[in-house]
Amino acid sequence: MQLTPSEIVNPAHSNHLLEPELLAWDFAAPSYGLDTFDLALADLANTSPAAPQSFTTTEPSTNERSEYTPPSQVFSEPLGSGGLSGSTPLTPSSIQSAGFAMTLPSSPAIFVLFRVLSQYPSLLRKGSFRSPFLHLSLYSLYNSTDPDMAYLPLTSMAICCGSGINNSADKRFVRRAINAARERLIGTFPCHQCIQQWDALHAMLIYESLEMGESIDVESETWRPSPPVKGLSSHFLLKMAESYAQSNPEIRNPDVSVFSDPNSNPCPKVTSPWARWKTTETARRTIFFANMVNFCSNYDHTTGKQMAYYEPLNDDLILNMPLPCNQAAWSADDEDTWKTAIKTPSSPPNYFAETTLKIILSSNIKDQLQAEIGTNVGFGDSDQLRRLIILCASEQFT
After folding, report:
1. φ and ψ of 340, to 5 deg
2. What contacts 98, CB < 8 A, 6 or more positions away?
């Protein structure tokens, strides 16, 4: 899909163009006004999705107390001091106790995906959590001492909205703020480049993840004359993701030697092969994230199928783009360490040595693949993220 400015550019912001060579945000520039946005959504119940048995999820442990605790009736075990510690089973009884009277045709894997993706915004508020989508070195554009999401203006706005939607007594205002923020993201995205572009897309994905956390309960109330409509912003999310992918010319190429070419990355201040790889690897992971969010946010649990207006991101890209690298390469402190780690085979199971989803899905049966992956997916490290991507692909493409 070609990003057409006439489709999504908001004329109200056409005078706020940014300099092409600017990599980080200019905090001295005037902030965008709220204008007259007043786009209210219908009230949504604040319930996190649960899943049937045989699947468990593992999430990164922290030493601080989580700011958000889902309703106790949704999960069969309480949250520990740092969120979910170890593995927490998701059982059919937890679905019944959450108020879902009907029989849901969704597979256990779908519920695992919903639960993990919908909890991503709350994880971002934990000080010890590091997102697996943005390389730590790229935070230095904002703060050289601490890789903190709070320094990313659009992402931090989305995180604050997530906190508000979970804890605020007046959720209608928070939802209006979310819609206004989305309008600004859609209107200004064509003006962004490099890390600004990532910040805008990442914020959009956070807003979509927040809606996923409420979607199952909304579907249980489809008897209403005018039930809430999901996926209204998916069209713009797809265009933003496609544009971001197209700005990284080597996003499909698994050969790291291509990053010796200065033209392999569009950001002019990224000058070393390692730096070009880090920016491209960040783009790959973010596009995989966008695909998972798009697939799950357009999923109808009452039918077990995609909604009528669902549009895939780019199946050919998702199936043939290199999967996230191993954790050692992602967290390498210097270029020599990275060169060694990127050439080191990943840990078992064997499919971790494969480069693309297309190869993995063509050589593994869906049930066997899900059984091998099932209990250890999430955002704790590169290996958990890789498993999560494969788990989603096993539902999406098989």
Report:
1. -70, -45
2. 47, 50, 71, 73, 74, 217
* Cβ neighbours around 154 below 10 Å, total: 23
Helices vs. strands in the chain: H and E counts, helices first: 15, 4
Q: Please say whether the dihedral angle defined by the alpha carbons of residues 134, 138, 141 and 146, taken in this order, is positive or negative.
A: positive
User: Tens digits of per-residue pLDDT, 365-389?
Assistant: 999 889 888 768 999 999 999 999 9
Q: E-strand spans in 164-216? A: none
CB 73, CB 45: distance < 8 Å:
no
Q: Which residues contact 174 (CB under 8 A, 6 or more apart)?
A: 161, 164, 165, 168
Please give the torsion angle defined by the CA atoms of residues 154, 160, 164 and 165, in that order, rounded to the nearest 10 degrees.
50
Q: Using one digit for the tens of pLDDT, what is the confidence trace for 77-102? A: 332 322 333 333 333 443 344 333 33
Nearest in space to 218 (alpha carbons), one of 395, 40, 48 = 48
If one counts every other C-beta atom within 10 angstroms of the C-beta of residue 10, the result is 17
- What lies within 8 Å, CB to CB, of 292 at 6+ separation is 113, 117, 388, 389, 392
- Give the largest Cα separation in the chain, rounded: 62
What are the tokens at 335?
């270029």
| Gap between the Cα atoms of 248 and 284, Å rounded | 9
The pTM (predicted TM-score) of the whole model is 0.74
Length of the chain: 398
Say how many Å lie between the first and final Cα of the chain, rounded.
Answer: 24
Write out pLDDT tens, residues 254-267: 999 999 999 998 78
Q: What is the mean pLDDT of residues 57-78?
A: 38
Neighbours of 65 (CB within 10 A): 12
- Distance between CA 293 and CA 234 in Å, rounded? 10
Strand partners, 80: 83
Give 72's DSSP letter.
Answer: T
Three-state SS at 258? helix
Q: Is the C-alpha dihedral spanning 335, 339, 342, 345 positive or negative?
A: negative
Show the CA angle centred on residue 154, arms to residues 153 and 159, nearest 5°: 95
365's enclosing H/E stretch is none
Calpha distance 3→189 (Å, rounded)? 10
Percent of the chain with pLDDT over 70: 64
